[in-house]
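Changelog-adjacent note: as of this version, every example in the card shows the full chain rather than a window. The one below runs 281 residues end to end.
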Amino acid sequence: MARALYPLLEATRGATCPLARLQNLGHSRDPSLDTLNVSTHRIIPAEPAEVVVHDEVSPCPYLRERLARMPLRLPVRSLSHDELDARLKKGDRRQGFFLYTTACPSCRACEPIRLDVSKFSPGRTQRRVFARANSRLRTELGPPIVDDRRVELYNKHRVARGLDDGHERIDHEGYRAFLVHTCCDSLELRYFQGDELVAVAIVDRGAESLSAVYTFYDPAIEPLSPGVFSILKQIELCKTWDLEYLYLGLYIADCPPMAYKARYVPHERFYEGEWIPGGPR
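Full-length structure tokens:
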């Protein structure tokens, strides 16, 4: 087991890995946070078992002046569809090989959000976005890969959206660690304008669900609302595969890049251990 885990643990190291940078996101390290840190490399009983490989309190990547704790857990083998569903139902998210859920010291702003596909009905604007983009973009489905074009698109997207926060641009190694490496059945939705790749969405598949991991696109196609279109395409894929839920990640009311998810209704939000229609009141 140790030999199998070793290359995966290596992915937590190195400045080019977004998972490593998640812990500071441009903030200087505050030594006073060390008193809040938790021991790592402990085993969590589960099926399969998980190893906690990183667990520190750090400045929040979403909300300024707040502290975050997002323990990274490494399953000892790849998850089956049912095992992924079980973790998504408990509010887990995935990046690279790792699973995480927020366990922040004094904040509960992050709420996992999901759509019951059978109940979702797109609004007029969403229907218009879908029709326009669907007539201009071609969609393909395949395994996640890394190449020059994907790295270029990822970096252009982050800069245009103001998400880079002064960080160096991602390279092939960092992209692979973030969006290609996986512990479950992961897929890549590829969007083409003519023969040119202009957007990519990474999703995970469970027995009853899809989970949206990350979407990025060429800023030149912003007028097509590719983020909205990609979510609607993922809903369409859920219906095609007879899946019940689409997990949209974390909803954070005070963080505009994360708050937009509440526009997809009706939705459910995970709060204090249960999925609540429309979220807590």
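Structural remarks: The CA atoms of residues 210 and 238 lie 7 Å apart.
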